[in-house]
Design a protein that fits this description.
The complex is a heterodimer of chains A (384) and B (458). Chain A is of the alpha/beta class. Chain A is built from 17 helices and eight strands. A four-stranded parallel sheet of chain A has the order 2-1-3-4. A four-stranded parallel sheet of chain A has the order 6-5-7-8, with helices on both faces. Chain B folds into four domains: 88 residues, Uridine Diphospho-n-acetylenolpyruvylglucosamine Reductase, domain 2 (2-Layer Sandwich); 129 residues, Uridine Diphospho-n-acetylenolpyruvylglucosamine Reductase, domain 3, CATH 3.30.465; 96 residues, Alpha-Beta Plaits (2-Layer Sandwich), CATH 3.30.70.3450; 96 residues, Vanillyl-alcohol Oxidase, Chain A, domain 3 (3-Layer(aba) Sandwich), CATH 3.40.462. Chain B is built from 15 helices and 19 strands. The two termini of chain B are 29 Å apart. The relative contact order of chain B is 0.12. Classes of the chains: A alpha/beta (384), B alpha+beta (458). Chains A and B meet through helix 2 and helix 3 of A and helix 2, helix 4, helix 11 and strand 16 of B.
């Protein structure tokens, strides 16, 4: 197995469970389950024991591996600088072994099947992926400067669609030249982190081929997940494009927007998406955009930027829900943390975070106290 | 067992009970060298009341119970030597009270060191607690109960001496309080009452389950500094310890010596941490510390190491993350140490002993000592790294640890948080009447012998 040579080097010291200020548990699956087995160190030792045939393949082992959200907190916090960069890679390699043995939870298997058959986990026709654009006057890609790639959650999920429409509207207002692909295929970020290498390559190659056929050079993604995979992993399959998360395009143009009049102060806190923040080290674009909006005052949560607590939606958990939505699920802990800042708005820059946190607000009964809004939604609301 | 698991699930909820092979595997071992011992089931309670119910059940069925905090003692104290239940306490991690004026904090036993450190920084920035150099996920309860020490031990002594009170579930299920909190709403002290806390300190979980505790807090200074005294002769370093601690200035005095990297080989480094409310006071304190060892600076047999900012920050970090990195010295994720509690006057002898064992046995070693109080005693550590992937290397480290335990006892020290074999070595050296009293107390508290059996036994 790839990276197996680092497994025995883990001391299980537990720095990986925490943020840098040690404030609370910051590994989403450990936070939720609390057994040592669900911590990164637990996974390291279990994986080694499994490869050494000290433990067998069981549904519990699969649950332990597929509840990892691939948020990257362990990589960020591990004190062993000589091998920390491969922590997530070794977990992915472990999941790949489980996939190869067919030992994945039913919900994971169902997720893979849907992507294989439909090109999206919603089991809907790809032809429906562009429905969100109806009435917005957005053209299919035909040589515009950018492709606006929306992804599964932004195309099919109701809340995701709302976010997509807001982002597209702002991009238009900023004069960005972009088109869309009305029949999109999943970007494959999640299946890669879940160890389904073959399916990832299939999805990625479909996108790469399509982008090439259309002559696309620059891509704006709605989702940080798509941004991550296209920027960092598509080049390995021959797909080199200039990839931007929408916040990175907007930040350079945000000054162009003329907001009407003065607005009363609005306290906003920002939830860093793992694939924009920890995985790609952009903690600034979203914050700069918020700072251009009149009246908005940014307040940080105790855990922000590299210490941000994942919403729990990564690693396919947005679709497979292995982590579940109990009181100690990361999204519910996160909305309480956001509320503690006194903010009225919990701003997001990822459709998966948006949905996870919105559901968590409802579960925690906080809908009256704080709202989840995407960056573009906040911008639009200030243009009214 | 099935029926018992169902009962446990009724008490703490299905989610927090596991007898899966994966949990049994992980909870059967810690990062040290001791052989694994599997529990039948792992349970994570969320309240003292749940623990009471678990203990009543365990007593009725005579099931062993092993309480566990961070699981980082390295000496295997939380292994279920006779099977039964491992009680992972880390869900009980609430910070219940901080009394700024009387300078104490009341926490649940599973609260982590890092969590309290962060909480105080945010909500009570003028206060801090004594942080051990264990990783920050280590629990406050666990560390106090093993007589840990940390970054304020030169002022406050062992962490068990900073303990103001306890809430405990007895092995038979009763819940009770110890210290001032048993009489008043305040958790300010164990005095002036008969000190029952000793029934639970240092017993390796064989006498009860601590559910809450209060610890002392100390001023978090505005200005902080560290000076590192360097000498080649352990006798000089030993004398420097007495001179520096006699100033009553340092919060922490930590000695270290290691054959690697090459530039430190042969030297002992004595880091002296202190703080002050103003720069003027800090400079005065620095000068007094320097003055205390001026003799050696003049003789050029000792001196203070000039510290670049980055290095200084590492010496002032609490906990020191570089200590965990020692586990990767042999590219193999492991180290264990004999932390010997011994008189400070044995410092030089302990240095020579550690070097002799390390060199002869060809193990990767690191030695050092945290001074407790004003040189009243020390926790001298003999740390040996090993490669977890290499059984022979692990055995080599284990051999070094066993010999060190024996030799420490010979020269007048006592292994701290001792492994089961070392506990037996201690008992053999102990006054038999003392051990008899321990057994009588234990039998009285735990009539069915269910608490962490296999520990403190011959």
């Amino acid at each position: 197995m790839e990276h197996a040579e680092i497994l025995h080097r883990c001391f299980r010291c537990g720095y990986c469970k925490l943020p840098s200020n040690y404030q609370n548990l910051n590994c989403p699956s450990y936070l939720n389950y609390r057994f040592e087995t669900f911590s990164p160190g637990g996974r390291m030792w279990l994986l080694r024991a499994w490869l050494d045939q000290e433990i067998k393949t069981t549904p519990r082992l699969s649950e332990i591996f597929f509840s990892c959200t691939a948020c990257g907190n362990c990589v960020e916090q591990c004190v062993f600088t000589k091998f920390k960069d491969d922590l997530l890679n070794v977990f992915i390699a472990g999941s790949e072994e489980l996939v190869n043995q067919g030992a994945v939870p039913a919900r994971v298997s169902d997720y893979f099947k849907s992507l294989n058959l439909y090109g999206n986990p919603y089991k809907l026709s790809e032809a429906e992926s562009g429905r969100w654009a109806e009435g917005l006057g957005i053209e299919p890609y035909q040589g515009q400067e950018y492709l606006f790639y929306v992804g599964c959650a932004g195309s099919y999920d109701e809340q995701g669609q709302k976010m997509t429409r807001s982002v597209a509207t702002i991009l238009k207002k900023l004069g960005v030249s972009f088109g869309i692909i009305p029949k999109e295929t999943c970007d494959g970020n999640e299946v890669r982190t879940m160890g389904e290498k073959g399916l990832f390559e299939k999805l990625a190659r479909r996108n790469i081929d399509q982008f090439r056929e259309l002559g696309i050079q620059k891509v704006i993604t709605l989702s940080p997940h798509a941004y991550n995979i296209m920027k960092n992993w598509y080049p390995g399959l021959g797909g080199s494009f200039q990839v931007y998360h929408y916040s990175q395009v907007m930040v350079g143009l945000a000054g162009k927007i003329k907001y009407p009049g003065r607005k009363k102060e609005l306290l906003v806190t920002f939830h860093d998406p793992c694939y924009l923040g920890r995985h790609n080290k952009d903690y600034i674009s979203a914050r700069l955009i918020l700072n251009t909006i009149p009246g908005v005052r940014l307040v940080e949560m105790d855990r922000s930027m590299a210490d941000s607590l994942c919403c729990g939606g990564g690693g396919g958990n947005f679709f497979t829900d292995i982590l579940g939505a109990g009181p100690e699920s990361p999204a519910r802990v996160r909305v309480q943390e956001a509320k503690a800042t006194g903010a009225e708005i919990l701003s997001v820059a990822c459709p998966k975070c948006a949905k996870m946190l919105e559901d968590a607000l409802k579960a925690e009964g906080l809908e009256e106290k704080i709202r989840v809004m995407d960056l573009a939604e906040i911008m639009l609301s200030h243009l009214d | 067992m099935k029926e018992i698991i169902k009962e446990l699930q009724k008490i703490v909820g299905e989610k927090y009970v596991s007898n899966h092979p994966e949990e049994r595997f992980i909870y059967s071992r810690d990062p040290g060298t001791m052989e694994p011992a599997e529990p039948d089931v792992v349970v994570m309670p969320n309240s003292a009341e749940e623990i009471q119910r678990i203990m009543l059940l365990a007593n009725e069925r005579k099931i062993p119970v092993v309480p566990m905090g961070g699981g980082l003692v390295l000496s295997g104290l939380t292994r279920a030597l006779k099977g039964g239940i491992v009680l992972d306490m880390k869900r009980m991690n609430r910070i219940l009270e901080v009394n700024e004026k009387s300078r104490y904090a009341v926490v649940e036993a599973g609260a982590s060191q890092g969590m309290l450190q962060s909480y105080l920084k945010k909500h009570h920035p003028k206060l801090k607690h004594s942080i051990p150099d264990a990783p920050p996920i280590a629990t406050i309860g666990g560390n106090v109960l093993i007589h840990g020490s940390g970054h304020i031990s030169a002022i406050g002594g062992f962490h068990s001496e900073m303990l103001n009170g306890l809430e405990v579930v007895l092995p038979t299920g009763e819940l009770l309080r110890i210290g001032s909190c048993s009489v008043t709403p305040y958790w300010f002290s164990r005095s002036p009452l008969p000190d029952l806390a000793g029934l639970f300190l240092g017993w390796a979980g064989t006498t009860g389950i601590v559910t809450k505790l209060a610890i002392r807090l100390y001023p978090d200074w505005k200005f902080n500094d560290v000076n590192v005294f360097l000498a080649e002769d352990p006798e000089i370093t030993q004398d420097a310890i007495f001179r520096i601690t006699a100033t009553a200035i340092p919060e922490d005095v930590l000695a270290a010596l290691s054959p690697k990297p090459d530039w430190v080989a042969g030297f002992q480094m004595l880091s002296v941490n202190y703080g002050a409310e103003s720069k003027k006071e800090l400079i005065l304190k620095r000068d007094l510390i320097r003055e205390s060892v001026w003799k050696y600076i003049e003789e050029k047999t000792g001196g203070f190491l000039p510290l670049p900012a980055e290095m200084k920050a590492r010496f002032m970090e609490a906990p020191q993350s570089q200590l965990a990195r020692f586990a990767d010295v042999r590219k193999g994720g492991g180290f264990e140490y004999v932390g010997a509690i011994m008189p400070t006057e044995l410092f030089a002898q302990a240095c020579r002993l550690g070097i002799e064992i390390g060199e002869r046995r060809k193990v990767s070693y690191s030695l050092g000592a945290r001074i407790i109080g004003m040189g009243h005693c020390m926790m001298f550590f003999f740390a040996y790294a090993f490669n977890r992937g290499d059984k022979a290397d692990m055995k080599r480290a284990q051999g070094a640890l066993e010999e060190t335990n024996e030799r420490v006892l010979e020269i007048g020290g006592i292994p701290w948080k001792a492994e089961v074999p070392a506990q037996k070595q201690i008992i053999r050296k102990m006054d038999p009447k003392t051990f008899e009293l321990m057994n009588r107390l234990r039998a009285m508290l735990d009539p069915n012998g269910i608490m962490n059996p296999g520990n403190w036994e011959l």
